[in-house]
Structure prediction request, 535 residues.
Amino acid sequence: MSGANLAIVGGAVLALLRVARADPRVAAALSGAAVLGFVVLARPSPSVVRAAVMGAVALLALALGRGRSAVPALAAAVLVLLLADPALAVDPGFALSVLATGGLVLLAPGWADALRRRGVPGWAAEALAVPAAAFLVTAPVVAGLSGQVSPIAVLANLLAVPAVAPATVLGVLAAVVSPLGDPLAQAGAWLAGPAVWWLVQVADRAAGVSGAALAWPDGVGGAVLLAGLVLALLVLGRSPRFRAVLVAVLLGLALVLVPTRVAPPGWPPAGWAAVACDVGQGDAVVLATGRPGWVVLVDAGPDDGLVDACLDRLGVQGLAMVVLSHLHADHVGGLAGALRGRPASAVAVGPGREPRWALEDVARRAGEAGVPLVALDAGRRLQWPALTLDVLGPLYPPTDVDAEDGTAVNDGSLVLRATTSAGALLLTGDIELAAQSDLLASGADLGADVLKMPHHGSRYTSVGFLNAVSPRAVLVSVGAGNRYRHPDPGLVGGLERGGATVRRTDTAGDIAVVGRPTEEDLHVVSRGSPLPAPR
Prediction:
């Protein structure tokens, strides 16, 4: 909930009443009533009440067209809220709300006027000025909290602007008319659908841009440092000569940093056979099939945007198959992103059927994309021009598994041996000690040039299993700062002492395996720009 949502609702009512030439006092009262009704609709939690006050200030600025009139109102609103709830003085959400509203009433109008004087259309000037002002004034607090600065926020907000008003107004309308009958509410929701879809797409794609967040010192020191830099930019920006230099520097940085951070030169490396995508705490491994642009994807990570962005970076045009090792969210959550805009031949699952809700979600997403859902079990072989997949496990498919028993679900993971141009890869899902023991006892050929570490490098991996695989390279798909403390330092250290090359997505970003199965030709190439740890 933000003040902008409430300002839009109140502004829409105000605009309708102005068209009807209602008395200004009546219009103001009804517009305020609409904001109050929205608060009731969304439940008057502290965050909603705070947003309502900030929205009322923004609405006042919009209605009067005078930023100076809104500044005393903003100051009064802040004082009243602090008197009512002193704890807001150290609440980050409150600080962000106040700063964003202050940027809206103090900076955005002047910037928009300056752009209009330079020939920029009024609507475009406001669309540019508002998110830029909001980003600039809130950046110090965001940096202090998260330890990063994300300039892509300006672009994301700019792209989101056209959809915010229709999504908000039509969504509220659907809620208001819902007591009158489902058809009316469904019609409102259907009309709001395209705008909501666009907002989701913008957020999803922006979140999936690897390397878009710039590291910055966190804490009070980092916030003060960035605040000083912002203040210096605002002061020096008043000089025409400095503005020209600043624009030139920003353009230069954009031309250098954007291509190298979003799509670094030389990525993907020529002749890649497999890529472990950096999707945070989850798995997504891409296997080249020998058909240009077509791959097999093993697991889809936890997030639509991250796996979609990785496939885009690799130039993937179609999916020969999506194999989901098991049904935990960090392996299937990004399925819709993988299927987005790409033809797929099939989505394959193993014999595990828990959690049931996850299987139903996978089936629904596959059905929406028009892709058949198929089952794989041990003993199956799948072949493409440059790829062979042998299903080694699970040897003893779980039955009557409790979805809450994570270990049992993990041990039901599909285990795949992929034969590629870079040698053999063993893809192990999240198998733990019991399933590893079953594979060792079966006598199956577990030897591989490359091992995708089981369960993100969990300590529940046996040394005997690792010795049987005897990999020359190990890929660990893991999220930075994860609460599970993956990967286990002892296991990683043992592999490295044994001569294996170990690469982790939390420190290396996307990781590609390149070459032929000879000692001197197997290469593991890191893209860099790994995802930051969550705060």
In short: The first helix runs from residue 3 to 19.
